[in-house]
Amino acid sequence: MQNPYEVIPAEIYEIIQESPLIRTLKFKPKKPIPFKTGQFIEVGIPGIGEGPFTPSSSHYIVDDMDVTIMKTGFLTEHIHKLQVGDLICIRGPFGSNYPLEKFKGKDVLILGGGCGLAPLRSLFLTMLHDHKDYNSITFLAGAKTPKDCIYKDEVTEWRKYDNVRFIRAVDEVPYGEHWEEDVCLVTKLLQKIDMKPDGNPAIVCGPPVMMKFGTYDLLNYGFKEENLYLSMEKKMYCGFGQCRHCVIGGYYACKDGPVFTYSMIKNEEAIWD
Amino acid sequence: MLVNILSFHNFLLKLRDSYHSFNQIIIPYRARSDDKNSFYFNEIKNEDHFRLNYYRTVDPVKILFYLFREKVYPTKNNHAKRIIIGVKACDLKALLLLDKALLQSGFIDPAYKYWRDNTLLISSDCDYLHETCSCNLLNGHPYAENGFDLNLSVIEDNYLIQLGSERSQEFIELMKKEINVAESTASDLEIVNANRKKVFNQLIEKNSDLKHHENFSAFRKVDHKIWEEVSKECVGCGACTNICPTCYCLILNDESKGNEFIKVRSYDSCQWNGYARVAGGGTPRPKMTERFRNRYLCKFDYMQKNFGEFGCTGCGRCTEACTAKIDFRKVVKTVSLMAQEVN
Question: ipTM exceeding 0.90?
Answer without folding.
Answer: no
